[in-house]
Amino acid sequence: MRIRSAEFVGASATAEGLLGDGRPEIAFAGRSNVGKSSLLNRLLGAKLARTSSTPGRTQTINWFRIDGKLWFVDLPGYGYAKVSRQAREDWARTVASYFARPHEARLVVQLVDAKVGATALDVEAAEYFTALGVARVVVATKADKLKRGEQVRRIEEIRRALGLAPETAPLTVSAKTGEGISELWKRIAEFLAAG
Ligand code: GTP
Ligand code: MG
């Protein structure tokens, strides 16, 4: 898919502040520091989302309008421990309110760190998305940190841990090298075409 324009439109911290206009939404979800913002930037070929080596950078839901046709939604990372209980509750409420709003054309890109593997929180999130019945593609990020053989093993581990069928095995991606980016765009385009 060829992107002509991508712009950051706004950030929302509360259910009331949610943006969106009924156009398809591609939402990026995963642990804090898994590489959500980096992947989004790589897909767009632009540094629109703020990235950081400090976990918990993205605390709000950030909305990016793509070609006036769809939205990229950068969700706050789950499993960031070093924040107050109040902040964690705010986070859960924000994310839950995002998914509580019905939307027929919503695809979740769930990110799992290829180097770290699937954590208990990743499994919990996967169960949450499965229960929601939302369309989903799982990607294993930071693939550049692993050798080819390790990648293959890790993908299989993640697939099993998240209870995914063989035909929905995770894609390996790297925001650093660009590996898997065109495959992920292909999945997104297929999702959009099907809707
Ligand atoms: P939060 O906003 O805190 O939830 O984090 P995030 O998931 O948006 O992660 P972010 O994109 O900010 O990246 C976190 C760290 O991982 C940064 O130091 C990135 O440079 C690094 N990183 C992201 N993607 C890759 C990748 O594909 N390869 C490597 N080697 N590092 C990556
Ligand atoms: Mg981020």
Description:
Helices cover 34% and strands 21% of the residues. It has 195 residues and is α/β, with parallel strands linked by helices. It has a single domain, classed as Rossmann fold (3-Layer(aba) Sandwich). Strands 1-3-4-2-5-6-7 form a 7-stranded mixed sheet, sandwiched between helices. β3 (61-66) and β4 form a beta hairpin. Magnesium ion (MG) binds next to α1. Magnesium ion (MG) is lined by residues 36-37, 57-58, 74.
Short description:
The chain has 195 residues and is an alpha/beta fold. The protein is 34% helix and 21% strand. β3 (61-66) and β4 form a beta hairpin.
Number of domains: 1
Reading the helices and strands in chain order gives EEHEEHEHEHEH
Bound molecules: guanosine-5'-triphosphate, magnesium ion
Strand content: 15-25%
- The CATH homologous superfamily is termed P-loop containing nucleotide triphosphate hydrolases
- By CATH, the architecture is named 3-Layer(aba) Sandwich
Please give the alpha-carbon distance between the first and last residues: 16 Å
Features:
seven-stranded mixed beta sheet; binds guanosine-5'-triphosphate; binds magnesium ion; 195 residues; Rossmann fold; single chain; globular
